[in-house]
Amino acid sequence: MVTAFIMVKANTGEADRLREEIESIDGVVSAHIVAGDVDLIAKASVDAPAAVKQIAATEIQGVDGVEGTQTYIAMD
After folding, report:
1. Exposed, middle or buried: residue 16 (CB in 10 Å: 0-12, 13-18, 19+)?
2. Residue 14 exposure: Cα atoms within 13 Å on the Cβ side
3. pLDDT tens profile 25-65
4. Is 49 left (phi over 0), alpha (psi -120 to 50) or beta?
5. Cβ atoms of residues 16 and 33 within 8 Å
6. Angle at the Cα of 44 (from 52 to 18), degrees rounded to 5?
7. Distance (Å, rounded) from C-alpha 51 to C-alpha 11?
8. Burial 18-48, CB ≥16 within 10 A → b, else e
9. What pLDDT, on the 0 to 100 scale, is given for residue 76?
10. Average pLDDT for residues 8-36, to the nearest whole number?
């Protein structure tokens, strides 16, 4: 099992809507609105690193209102 944390930068005023959309993506187990340099942090739990790429680079970045992402794969 691969766990990844995806930092999401959102357009102004879009965080609530984006959280709901991101949480509905298969493989995303949770999404939280946060304070700081990013607007949301999503946690993904999948079978392989390629699935993390699919979620972050295709699914989340494809959501209207997402400005960008940074992905961190857990090492433990």
Report:
1. exposed
2. 14
3. 999 999 999 999 999 999 999 999 999 999 999 999 999 99
4. alpha
5. yes
6. 100
7. 25
8. bbebbeebebbeebeeeeeebbbbbbbebee
9. 86
10. 96
